[in-house]
Amino acid sequence: MLISDFENFIMDAFTKEKLEIVKNKNEYGFTNIGKNNISKLGYCTNLTIESVQEAVKNNVDLLITHHDAWEWMSGIKEEVTEILKQANITHFFVHLPLDDAEFGNNCSILKKLNFKTVDKFSNEEGMYCGRIGELEEPIKFEELVNKIEVLLEEPVRKWKNNDKLIKRIAVVTGAGFSAIDIKDAVNLDCDAYFTGEKILYTVQYAQFSKINLIVGSHTFTEIFGLESLGKMIKEKYSELEIIRIHEEHVE
């Protein structure tokens, strides 16, 4: 696969219309462009010194992440960019468009948990950061928590704020700590709210609203959209080797 092939694939997968919405908002793009011919692709949630070093160790030609290196964390972006340049690795990140996509983070994690995606919410300038999922048969809160912990391979924080069975869930992967999103989930008749970060207000509003709250990590609630994207690329370019880059459970 050539870099130009990859660019065309991204344009088709996310659509030109959607990408145009965030064109000048640093929500997707290349951090570095290395060799033109790509034979091995790696993916992970975060662009960090550790993830880039893992990409180098695994001889990756193209690294795709959900997050770019954080600009406000002084020095990290410069260092990871230098490692990418030295190793001649291309890096591409896709943030809000992957949250919004029908194959993206929210839809993919719901599918993994056997929920059917039935609605979207948390609109951010035409992009939807959240999804609503439904089960055919409701399950106990504790069973849902266990399924999530098995999927994420990490313990989660949980607050059981009602005794209802879980049939309908609202999901905002990553930093879905907004009380407004929780209010929308309640108004959409959800039994639980699942996200990847929380602050005091998240917990307090969930308790006030009597909606069950489950919080995993930012990193591992957002890996599955990248996994889905990797599978889509593999279907088109079967000769391409695709691997998941290891990240530690640090949150």
TrEMBL record:
Keywords: Metal-binding. SUPFAM superfamilies: NIF3 (NGG1p interacting factor 3)-like. InterPro entries: DUF34/NIF3, DUF34/NIF3_sf. The keyword Metal-binding applies. The keyword Metal-binding applies. It comes from the Bacteria. Belongs to the GTP cyclohydrolase I type 2/NIF3 family. This is GTP cyclohydrolase 1 type 2 homolog. It comes from Clostridium rhizosphaerae. The lineage of its organism: Bacteria, Bacillati, Bacillota, Clostridia, Eubacteriales.
